[in-house]
Amino acid sequence: MIRVVLIGSGNLAYHLHKALLGAEDVSLVGLVARRPEALSDFETTLPIKKLGTPLDTADVYILAVADSAIGEVMMHYPGADGLFVHTSGAMDLKVLQGASRPGVLYPLQTFSKERAIDFQKVPLCIEAALASDAALLTALARTLSTQVLELPTAKRRALHLAAVYINNFSNHMIYLGETICAEAGLSKSLLGPLLDETCAKAKDLSAYSAQTGPARRNDTETLQAHLRMLTGEEDKELYTKISESIYRTYEQEL
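Request: output the structure for the sequence above.
Response:
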């Protein structure tokens, strides 16, 4: 039985605690948060402690907190025993200051409390300073997911950067598209079938071969018409930069 203490109260911590509770051979022995009241929608039968109070004994301590908060959390537990792991895609092991056994358990997924997630389908990327801890993390990760990869920091950071493009940036583009529809009195639901097909094509065909649109075919007349419709300078600059990037990707084929 792998004993786990989970530190954090945000979206990832919420989904992790549910996955840990449902995992075989894993015991979630406690929750820790800066504000314990933020855990009100977590499993209430679990022991809850405030950040800085002595930790319960566990095999793994998971810090499901913002990157900027990892160092602050570790300051509360100087010289603490046990395997301390963060869940960041961008931070290295050194950020776990004072931990003699640092590690990483990075889930490649976007999390919102309002959306159910099948954790078994979430790729889990692990890293540890010690081989024995890598084995322990692998065992823990395999109880949570069918996709477990041991990745060094450089590769994990590259994967995180790719994820920012695929999820964060694309989601912002969807937001801007919804805003344009709203300003024109159109329902965002009209974009739903297009969004579904866009994602399906990118997976089935590869994003490179699935690209369409005015920038892909160098339709300057349409590009200029779109720019005239945009009133904000930032919106115009963003449209132009993305269109130029698409054009440069395919200009040898035109």
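The domain at 156-253 is CATH 1.10.1040.20 (N-(1-d-carboxylethyl)-l-norvaline Dehydrogenase; domain 2).
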